[in-house]
Model the fold of this input.
Amino acid sequence: MLISLTIKEAYEFDHLVKRQDDFFLTSCCCPVWINMVERNYPELFNHMSPSVSPMIAAGRFLKRLYPGAKVVFISPCTAKKAEAKDPRQADAIDFVITYQELKEVFTVLELEPGQLPEDDKDHASFAGRLYARTGGVSLSVKTAVNRIAPDRLINLRARKVDGVKACKEILDKLKKGERIEANFIEGMGCEGGCVGGPKTNIDKDKAREIVNEYSEESLIMTPMDNLNIIRILRELGYDDFSDIYEEEELLKLLSREKVGN
Ligand code: SF4
Done:
């Protein structure tokens, strides 16, 4: 669901950033960043993407496609546990476990995932796979903006910040009205992005390297060429990417408010 969010954020950016001094805050995938803006910088929150995180989007889509399914989200992030219980979006995810917890399960069951056969489906695009590290969201959304609005006069100029200190610094600047020479601000609570999450099993720099290699292996270059997303949208009755931004039901699935199952 990264990709449908990428496309939605591309439409949001195209809609919201019309003048040189307009700016757009994301990434919607990081609850630490979202909560920081919502609680401590409420005057900036109307610049924040109204989209849910990929975790919530994936849960809602899965439950829509497979009624009665239980959804487990696995990540290096403890903040995701609280995000899944947020009353506005508690309809999406049943359980959140961390990589460290999953490793314990594998150890107890004597499972070696690296020895198991590879699933050869090409799930995500080059840009979508980069979401796990800082800069991935910016690259992915920029690719989509260039595709949906190639004639835009104001280009997407990204600024990436990671770690709580850097996030606060940029938000303080924005609050004071200082110019930052960017109109798309990607914030991630952990240094390096999710590869630096608190419950990861491997070194952050090594994880970043693996994420980059994994991205380069993708045969799908842009979010708009992801056949998996096209298929899922068709199964839900939609056939145009603009439906992600225009159709009420899809907007509800991808926005921060509780939806019925
Ligand atoms: S950057 Fe850190 S806090 Fe934010 S979603 Fe990733 S792991 Fe969680």
In short: The beta strands are 24-26, 72-75, 95-98, 158-162, 184-188. Residues 2-16 form the longest helix (15 residues). The chain has one domain: 2-253.
